[in-house]
């Protein structure tokens, strides 16, 4: 979707009866100087002073000063190569002191160091066709998920980019979004233009591959025995649920930042669906 | 009668008296001659004794003469006769002298015999004779055993060396048949003779002697087998097994005789083992040959597909290429089966062994060769699906189509035919598990399905790329009023028609939903009538979009959701439907990402109408095409700030013109 050129929104006609606040424009990030902008992301940690925007084949790092009323270009980098290279999406890694950014252009994924604006790693042919979205695992460093137009979702370890750690092929058309749950990174949400939202349980590559470990002191004898039986085999990766409430392509999915078990999905026909993780799984993960 | 009886009685009396008189006279004669009789007997005895003594006295000289003349046998006989007597009377000095002389001469005789024996120039029977004589002379038997075996070893080793010389690279190697003949007659024949002679001569030795012979035979036998295996290993190439089988047959036959003689040496078993090993290698060789032939025919197909068309001459059609590939594979399989069948022919000596009757047929031929080849064919075909980078640049899509049809044909008819042929020729007689026909057919069908799905994906991708580029690179906001259909749409229709023709060469038509008579004349009824007013009101009042959205959502509820990458059936219509679905969905998603000016929207409208005019006849259900194209235009309209659609009649005029 063509992104706005400004981080803030435009003013929309106010409806006196609605309680929504009006949006106020704070500052511009040098609009239209370098072509169309594909993506804008804030720094995950820190005091919200730094923003990265991807425009055509440039990465631009902005510093917001004076309570965000002014944006200074701190540094930038460009992608050189044959043909018209264009960034399609980008993501700021929450690890490594927020100094890494991953971007996607066509079928390649590149990692950049924001301190020097140089490329760290490059995953060529991450997908057979266009890469649509990226997400970093919030609990595990170096782990990255990507999804693309070849209907696949791939998980990568950025230390060894030759091969994906895992590949999921549950969707039957382009996958537009992939999202890790913010606290329990075995829950992965994907939305696709085949009108489905799939919630997967990627236990084997999560930060808790053998489930929640409980201290032995806290258990009574009965529970101990039961837990021993259950923890004999590590849980397998699986699809938890497929949500088919949408009638048209699903273009965006995301987790709620308030409740780690809620997620929302948005489809082309304007339908916003909010769902919960199944209760049995939630208790299984928590206990 | 009484007279007669009386006469007879008288005569009998007379006879009796006569007899008494005769007896009387006879006794008197014996008594007179008794004396002389005794004396004559004594003389005769003395004469015999004297003759013996003479013999004894003459013995040394006679022995010497015999030794000089070389009549060893005679000498040994003399010696044998005299030995016991000499032994008994050796306390008499004269006899002692004779005995000493004799011993000296005997020793010399023995030495000469040994020398003759050692020279070994003489053939085996003479050697056997020497040994016999030596044994009769009382030589210790173990020594003789050893020497005999050592001699035999020397001879046999010479044979082995000559065989080995034949293996060397410098002289042109004779063929396998001659080699085995040479080996068989030379070495094996010699071994037989040695074994027979040994057993005759040293039968008195008992098990120790037999054990020595067995060890000897085993050692030399293993060397012979090693040479034979080396020679057989050289028989690499050539699909013709007849020479090899005959050579193996001779080899095996030859070893039956020594095998019977020397049961403990295990020669026959070793020979059977060698034959089995060679048979297994040949099977592996044939399998490789079949695989290479399959790959070769695939390369030919690729070349034929890639060859530039000579003007005025049609290249080979896909159906022809398919027929060529199938027939060549079948002929290769038949040739392999025929040449392997030689191993189990009745005349061949080893065909009765349990391995050949059972395991060779079932495991070797049926499982490893035939089933193995079919499986490797399926795997090779599937590897075309998994090529990295799904651009499809490496494999021509026609090849995918051809392979999928080949696998389908195999599943329906050819696999069962081949396996029936195999089972007829090689009657399976053991109970080892064999792969049933149904498993193989299922595998072949699965391969065919994967190949066809991959073909649909690849072709769909090609058309999708065209559509995507056409949407992404055009400036829709400032385009002019459409006068004609865009060239890329015509390209799409042409490509789809070409694919239709290509698939139609190999696959049947398939079932299509009944076409309504006015399909090509259909306008955007849903779009133009009910939606038009609500959607394109210039003011964005909240109610209007809701109405149309409600309508479209209700519409969507009642229409089936379209599954884009659904499994493909084995007919042309299904393949084409899959390809068109993929392409139109791509068009839809790309259109949703752009912003259109008024004329941009109209251009999209014209293009979609054009596509609808031509694509409906390729798909199974034309509603599908209508639905997707309606969606495209609707999405474009939503992305347009100033949507004013073109009049349907004008759209039709433009499409008909272009």
TrEMBL record, chain A:
Q: What's in the keyword line of the UniProt record?
A: Repeat, WD repeat
**Protein name, entry field:** EARP and GARP complex-interacting protein 1
Q: Which organism is it from?
A: Odocoileus virginianus (White-tailed deer)
**Assembly, per entry:** Interacts with two multisubunit tethering complexes: EARP composed of VPS50, VPS51, VPS52 and VPS53 subunits and GARP complex composed of VPS51, VPS52, VPS53 and VPS54 subunits. Interacts with SNAP29.
Q: What does this protein do?
A: Acts as a component of endosomal retrieval machinery that is involved in protein transport from early endosomes to either recycling endosomes or the trans-Golgi network. Mediates the recruitment of Golgi-associated retrograde protein (GARP) complex to the trans-Golgi network and controls early endosome-to-Golgi transport of internalized protein. Promotes the recycling of internalized transferrin receptor (TFRC) to the plasma membrane through interaction with endosome-associated recycling protein (EARP) complex.
Q: A Pfam family this protein belongs to?
A: WD40
Q: Where are the WD repeats?
A: 124-160
- What range(s) does the EIPR1-like beta-propeller domain occupy? 36-199
Q: Which residues form a coiled coil?
A: none
- Please give the SUPFAM superfamilies that the UniProt record associates with this protein: WD40 repeat-like
Its encoding gene is what?
EIPR1
TrEMBL record, chain B:
Q: Which organism is it from?
A: Odocoileus virginianus
Alphabetic keyword roster: Coiled coil, Endosome, Golgi apparatus, Lipid transport, Protein transport, Transport
Q: What quaternary arrangement does the UniProt entry report?
A: Component of the Golgi-associated retrograde protein (GARP) complex. Component of the endosome-associated retrograde protein (EARP) complex.
- Please describe what this protein does: Involved in retrograde transport from early and late endosomes to the late Golgi. The GARP complex is required for the maintenance of protein retrieval from endosomes to the TGN, acid hydrolase sorting, lysosome function, endosomal cholesterol traffic and autophagy. Acts as component of the EARP complex that is involved in endocytic recycling.
Give the gene name: VPS51
Q: Which SUPFAM superfamilies does UniProt cross-reference here?
A: Cullin repeat-like
What family is this?
Answer: Belongs to the VPS51 family.
Q: Which residues form the Exocyst complex component EXOC2/Sec5 N-terminal domain?
A: 7-163
Main site of residence? Golgi
InterPro entries noted in UniProt: Cullin_repeat-like_dom_sf (IPR016159), EXOC2/Sec5_N_dom (IPR039481), Vps51 (IPR014812)
Location of the protein in the cell: Golgi apparatus, trans-Golgi network; Recycling endosome
Q: What is this protein called?
A: Vacuolar protein sorting-associated protein 51 homolog
């Amino acid at each position: 979707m063509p992104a706005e050129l400004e981080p803030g929104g435009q003013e929309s006609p106010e409806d006196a009866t609605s309680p929504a606040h009006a949006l106020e424009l704070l500052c511009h990030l040098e609009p239209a100087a370098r072509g169309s902008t594909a993506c804008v992301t804030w720094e995950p940690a820190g005091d919200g002073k730094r923003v990265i925007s991807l425009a055509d084949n440039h990465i631009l790092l902005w510093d917001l000063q004076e309570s965000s009323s002014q944006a200074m270009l701190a540094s930038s980098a460009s992608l050189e190569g044959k043909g018209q290279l264009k960034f399609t999406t980008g993501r700021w890694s929450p690890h490594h002191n927020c100094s890494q950014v991953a971007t996607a252009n066509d079928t390649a994924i590149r990692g950049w160091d924001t301190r020097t604006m140089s490329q760290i790693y490059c995953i060529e042919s991450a997908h057979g066709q266009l890469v649509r979205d990226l997400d970093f695992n919030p609990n595990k460093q170096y782990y990255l998920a990507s999804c693309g137009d070849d209907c696949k979702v791939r998980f990568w370890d950025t230390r060894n980019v030759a091969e994906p750690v895992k590949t999921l092929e549950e969707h039957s058309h382009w996958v537009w979004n992939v999202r890790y749950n913010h606290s329990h990174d075995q829950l992965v949400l994907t939305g696709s233009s085949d009108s489905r939202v799939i919630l997967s349980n990627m236990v084997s590559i999560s930060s808790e591959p053998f489930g929640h470990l409980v201290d032995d002191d806290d258990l009574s004898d009965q529970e101990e025995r039961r837990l021993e039986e259950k923890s004999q085999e590590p849980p397998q990766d699986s699809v938890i649920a497929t949500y088919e409430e949408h009638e048209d392509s699903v273009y965006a999915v995301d987790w709620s930042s308030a409740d780690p078990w809620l997620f929302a999905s948005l489809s082309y026909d304007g339908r916003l669906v909010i769902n919960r993780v199944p209760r049995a799984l939630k208790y299984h993960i928590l206990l | 009668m009484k007279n007669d009886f009386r006469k007879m009685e008288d005569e009998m009396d007379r006879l009796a008296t006569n007899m008494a008189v005769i007896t009387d006279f006879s006794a008197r004669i014996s008594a007179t001659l008794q004396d002389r009789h005794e004396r004559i007997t004594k003389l005769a005895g003395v004469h015999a004794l004297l003759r013996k003594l003479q013999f004894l006295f003459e013995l040394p000289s006679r022995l010497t003469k015999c030794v000089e003349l070389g009549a060893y046998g005679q000498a040994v006989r003399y010696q044998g006769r005299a030995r016991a007597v000499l032994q008994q009377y050796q306390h008499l000095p004269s006899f002692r002298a004779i005995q000493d002389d004799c011993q000296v001469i005997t020793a010399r005789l023995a030495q000469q015999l040994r020398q003759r024996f050692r020279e070994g120039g003489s053939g085996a029977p003479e050697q056997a004779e020497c040994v016999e004589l030596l044994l009769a002379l009382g030589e210790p038997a173990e020594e003789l055993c050893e020497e005999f075996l050592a001699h035999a070893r020397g001879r046999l080793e010479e044979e082995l060396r000559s065989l080995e010389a034949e293996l060397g690279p410098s002289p042109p190697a004779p063929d396998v048949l001659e080699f085995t003949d040479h080996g068989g007659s030379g070495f094996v024949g010699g071994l037989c003779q040695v074994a027979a002679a040994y057993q005759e001569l040293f039968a008195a030795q008992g098990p120790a002697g037999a054990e020595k012979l067995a060890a000897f035979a085993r050692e030399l036998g293993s060397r012979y087998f090693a040479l034979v295996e080396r020679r057989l290993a050289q028989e690499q190439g050539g699909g013709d097994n007849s020479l090899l089988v005959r050579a193996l047959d001779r080899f095996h036959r030859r070893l039956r005789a020594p095998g019977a003689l020397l049961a403990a040496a295990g020669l026959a078993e070793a020979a059977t083992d060698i034959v089995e090993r060679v048979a297994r290698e040949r099977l592996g060789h044939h399998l490789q040959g079949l695989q290479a032939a399959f790959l070769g025919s695939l390369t030919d197909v690729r070349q034929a597909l890639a060859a530039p068309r000579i003007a005025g001459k049609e290249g080979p059609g896909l159906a022809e290429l398919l027929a060529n590939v199938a027939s060549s594979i079948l002929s290769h399989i038949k040739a392999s089966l025929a040449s392997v069948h030689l191993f189990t022919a009745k005349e061949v000596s080893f065909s009765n062994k349990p391995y050949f009757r059972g395991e060779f047929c079932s495991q070797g031929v049926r499982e490893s060769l035939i089933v193995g080849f079919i499986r490797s064919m399926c795997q090779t075909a599937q590897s075309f699906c998994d090529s990295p980078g799904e651009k499809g640049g490496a494999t021509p899509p026609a090849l995918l189509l051809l392979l999928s049809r080949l696998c389908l044909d195999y599943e329906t008819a050819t696999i069962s035919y081949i396996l029936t042929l195999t089972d007829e020729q090689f009657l399976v007689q053991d109970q080892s598990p064999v792969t049933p026909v149904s498993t193989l057919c299922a595998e072949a069908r699965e391969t065919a399905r994967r190949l066809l799905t991959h073909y649909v994906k690849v072709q769909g991708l090609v058309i999708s790329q065209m559509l995507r580029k056409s949407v992404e690179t055009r400036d829709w906001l400032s385009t002019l009023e459409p006068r004609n259909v865009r060239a890329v749409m015509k390209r799409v229709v042409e490509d789809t028609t070409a694919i239709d023709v290509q698939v139609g060469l190999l696959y049947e038509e398939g079932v299509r939903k009944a076409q309504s008579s006015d399909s090509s004349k259909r306008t955007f009824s849903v779009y133009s009538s009910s939606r038009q007013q609500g959607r394109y009101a210039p003011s964005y009042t909240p109610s209007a979009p809701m109405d149309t959205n409600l309508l479209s959502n209700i519409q969507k509820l009642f229409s089936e959701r379209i599954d884009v990458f659904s499994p493909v059936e084995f007919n042309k219509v299904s393949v084409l439907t899959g390809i068109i679905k993929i392409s139109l969905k791509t068009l839809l998603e790309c259109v949703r990402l752009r912003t259109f000016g008024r004329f941009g929207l109209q251009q999209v409208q014209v293009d979609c109408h054009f596509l609808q005019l031509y694509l409906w006849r390729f798909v199974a259900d034309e509603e599908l095409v209508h639905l997707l194209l309606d969606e495209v235009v609707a999405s474009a309209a939503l992305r347009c700030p100033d949507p004013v659609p073109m009049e349907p009649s004008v759209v039709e005029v433009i499409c008909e013109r272009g």
